[in-house]
Design goal:
There is one protein chain. Helices cover 74% and strands 0% of the residues. It is mostly helical. It has one domain. The longest helix is centred in the N-terminal third of the chain and has 30 residues. It starts with 13 loop residues before the first helix and ends with a helix.
């Protein structure tokens, strides 16, 4: 019981940062899917969640949305690190991209999506990660904006409801990214992590070879 009141441990190494990205990406997208579905179903939520067809739809939604969560959390991480990277910006970015893709690769191909869709999702994630370094860091609340439409399209709700519900779901993502930013800022020593990522950069390793 007393463990509930303990502060989360500091993020002191690259592996811990990878775990943070993975866990928060999964949590944010799944929480949105489940809580929104329960809210829409109301008193029928328990019945709905027992339906095999709905369970399959949720599986497709959460695995389809997971790469979006990774991209959003990665952008939060990059924004916190950017002021501390100096001339190591490219190296740190490459190491962060490799770390996020490694988090993605932890999971076998989800049966709900299939190999082709999963490989396509990885390729799209890589493109999104590459684009992070092409613009100035954003406020945490603005990070979800390019992803919100794709996320809403994956939630198992009728298409006619998506337009009216879009602002609510986008605001959920905005608040979630603010919370991720605040937690990471407290738990991670950004200058130290930038140095660790720079040293682990695939580009640096290639240059050393």
């Amino acid at each position: 019981m007393f463990g509930f009141f303990r502060r989360p441990p500091p993020i002191g190494d690259i592996a811990a940062l990878g775990d943070f990205i993975d866990e928060h990406a999964a949590f944010v997208v799944q929480k949105g899917i489940y809580e929104y579905s329960r809210a829409r179903a109301g008193h029928y939520a328990k019945v709905l969640f027992r339906e095999p067809e709905f369970q399959q739809a949720v599986e497709r939604s959460r695995w389809g949305a997971y790469p979006l969560g990774l991209a959003m959390v990665a952008e939060i991480v990059e924004g916190i690190l950017r002021p501390h990277v100096g001339e190591r910006r490219a190296a740190v970015h490459d190491a962060l991209v490799a770390l996020v893709l490694a988090a993605f690769d932890r999971y076998p191909v989800p049966a709900a999506l299939g190999g082709d869709a999963w490989n396509q999702a990885r390729g799209e994630l890589k493109q999104r990660l590459d684009r992070i370094s092409l613009h100035a860091p954003k406020f945490a609340k603005d990070v979800p904006d390019p992803f919100a439409e794709s996320y809403v399209s994956l939630i198992p709700i009728h298409e006619k409801l998506r337009a009216s519900e879009f602002p609510t779901i986008r605001n959920y993502l905005r608040v979630s990214m603010i919370n991720v930013h605040d937690e990471l800022s407290k738990r991670m020593d950004a200058p130290a992590m930038a140095a660790l990522l720079s040293a682990a950069s695939p580009a640096d390793e290639a240059g050393a070879g």
